[in-house]
């Protein structure tokens, strides 16, 4: 496995979606910003402090299930809202209502802009398949399958653990390791024989907490040190940096 940058004994690759496989992390950050800024402006008026699509996104919402992201960011501003229900409409000022509002925005942006995969990650996933490694996508997004299909890469992965599956199985999201552990279990691989590929700090923590064989941080935004501090064993700018002489 040296041509894939993996230690001996690794038998599976568990990939995050947004920011690792597809160029959708910036779309999600823009959707969070649009939703939170509208909410904060209606609440605080002209004196509102906007959502920062880099710092606030990385610290409070990146990699988390939608409702957890809403709670996390609002708590950072000292705001508490009623939980509401998962089927709350987007106009409801509840945790789930704001999450629904954000999801509507991101779906519109994806429809408008399309989905582009990171070609280096696609090459890496294809090399992993050629080497006989098991492969899964692990994402907090409920739109994971639609994004994979839009990017043309769904066939590269045998297992998908996403927001829909996590809700069905009642799995807590990242930074808890449960979704990654479920992916390894579905692939029939022990965690110590699986590698995790993540770009979010919450994903690093999940990889470390799950005692996986390798945790790879993918640094798209210049946060290499933070990725290491949160659990990355190594950090790359793109996954094809790990390929070496692999075809």
UniProtKB/TrEMBL annotation:
One of its GO terms (molecular function) is hydrolase activity. Keywords: Carbohydrate metabolism, Hydrolase, Isomerase, Magnesium, Metal-binding, Phosphoprotein. SUPFAM superfamilies: HAD-like (SSF56784). Belongs to the HAD-like hydrolase superfamily. CbbY/CbbZ/Gph/YieH family. The lineage of its organism: Bacteria, Bacillati, Actinomycetota, Actinomycetes, Kitasatosporales. It comes from Streptomyces eurocidicus (Streptoverticillium eurocidicus). InterPro entries: B-phosphoglucomutase_hydrolase, Beta-PGM-like, HAD-like_sf, HAD-SF_hydro_IA, HAD_sf, PGP-like_dom2. This is Beta-phosphoglucomutase. It comes from the Bacteria.
